[in-house]
Amino acid sequence: MTTQTEVSTGAQPPEPEVEKQRTWRDYFTFNTDHKVIGIQYLVTSFIFYLIGGALAGVMRTELATPNPNFVQPEFYNRLFTMHGTIMIFLWIIPAGAGFANYLIPLMIGAKDMAFPRLNAVAFWIIPIGGLLLLGSFFVGAPQAGWTSYPPLSLLTGKAGEELWILSVLLLGTSSILGAINFVTTIWKMRVPSMGWNDMPLLCWSMLATSGLILIGTPVLAAAMILLSFDLIVGTTFFNPTGGGDPIVYQHMFWFYSHPAVYIMILPFFGIISEVLPVHARKPIFAYRAIAYSNLAISFLGLLVWAHHMFTSGTPGWLRMFFMATTMLIAVPTGIKVFSWCATLWGGKISLNSSMLFGMGFISAFLIGGLSGVMVASVPFDIHVHDTYFIVAHLHYVLFGGSVLGLFAGIYHWFPKMTGHMLNETWGRIHFALTFIGLNLTFLPMHELGLLGMNRRIALYDAEFQLLNLVCTAGSYLLAVSTIPFLVNAIWSWIRGRQASGNPWKALTLEWQTSSPPAIENFDEEPVLWSGPYDYGIDVLSADSEESVEELLSEVQADVR
């Protein structure tokens, strides 16, 4: 990697003094401070991540052998349902919301979110919905896979199914409330000097995410309500025995659930766009292309849902339309990947933990993105539909993408949130274990899918056992990788090295306040000293230098 001499970034604001901070008790209350709520989101979602990961460990242990010897197939399906629902609705989506809650008001120079009480309500719905979801597991959780396609879902325990539906409705409501808050905050509460093209890219990502949530989530809620009527009242909206159509449920379900992939990944696109230029000491490449590609992904993401239904009797002309739109969405995504790589090229790269996770994100997400273009093709998708190839693709996007992006963000903003630095040695160990475990677990699944191993089942032919053993070993390594992170985070939060207000010498506004920030964020309205990514650029032009000299002369004259 080439290096370059670091150039002054221009005038830097003095580091502010640390003011009164929150106490640990504030994080267990109905608090309206966006920073408290952001940490509540992150910690709560991580607890559910551990639960969902434990369920995955049980499933992978069962899949180490072709015959049932650990859990019965029916119980395996319940584990599968809980794992998928927890990881999506209680881990990745709330974690992205947690980062946005903490950072967006700071990044735009606001004192809080637009609707602080609504913000707190949106968070406290999460643990309630999570407890209901876990409760459904003990009273007959859905056994048809987390998609719960009717009429299969109508054959399972009604109590568990209803609790599952209610939890999804609550968690969707939380997302909608958060989306309203993010759009209003970004639109109306930026400092006057911050134009649209001066915003940090995380703000653009959350605008695009919020649009998808506001359009897609109500459709999923409608599907859940109609399914609930079929279960309780005896209607037949989706039950073919009474004239209903289960394909309608699939359309409603996937109209949300494929955009949900972008709801989960877009916030972490924004995080990576914040992390890379800071630790490469280079301006972000093609700022506007990255910003507007978020909006393009949000729009096209609403036009691709039926590629999940190529085997559901979809007419040929409709297959061609959704194949084209699914391939087209790779264009704005590719713009981001090329821009990130161009940002790294020739940079003065610091290979700290945040940057390692950021670069790991790019490589893993690229694999998931390329396999996504493959499954967009109708003939190939029909061949690998409901096989482990799809499982591999999904996890390279969401674990290799969202989760690695999340850890990049934690290592980057942990000093801002806690006032302490994470230990870099343990951070690098965490990255190595995670990245190796990720590839051991999910890379062989591509081959399993091409060979014809179906997903959502506990039984398989003996010819697949060796690859499954590799996947199971990788999953154990992923489980172990969590230990150094937990030890590092807890120890550093309590006893870690003190962080300055801006340990990375970053330029976005959240670094113009103390670490952790004061309760009101800023003592006075912050000043845009430079663009958010003007690393290596002399901010003061010749004209502006003359203006500053004239201003100083006037001030000195006034003093005299």
Blueprint of the fold:
Elements: H1 34-62, H2 73-107, H3 116-137, H4 158-188, H5 201-232, H6 246-257, H7 259-280, H8 287-300, H9 316-328, H10 330-344, H11 353-376, H12 378-384, H13 388-418, H14 424-451, H15 465-495, H16 542-559
Find the CATH superfamily: Cytochrome c oxidase-like, subunit I domain
How far apart the termini lie comes to: 53 Å
Alpha-beta content class: mainly alpha
Oligomer category = single chain
Number of domain modules: 1
Rg computed from alpha carbons, rounded to a whole number of angstroms: 24 Å
What proportion of the residues form beta strands (DSSP E)?
Answer: under 5%
CATH topology: Cytochrome C Oxidase, Chain A
Shape: globular
Q: What is the makeup of the main sheet?
A: none
Structural write-up:
65% of the residues lie in helices and 0% in strands. With 560 residues, the protein is mostly helical. α7 (259-280) runs parallel beside α10 (330-344) and α11 packs parallel to α14. The protein is globular. The relative contact order is 0.12.
Q: What are the main properties of this structure?
A:
mainly alpha; Cytochrome C Oxidase, Chain A
Sum this structure up briefly.
Helix content is 65%, strand content 0%. It contains 16 helices and no strands.
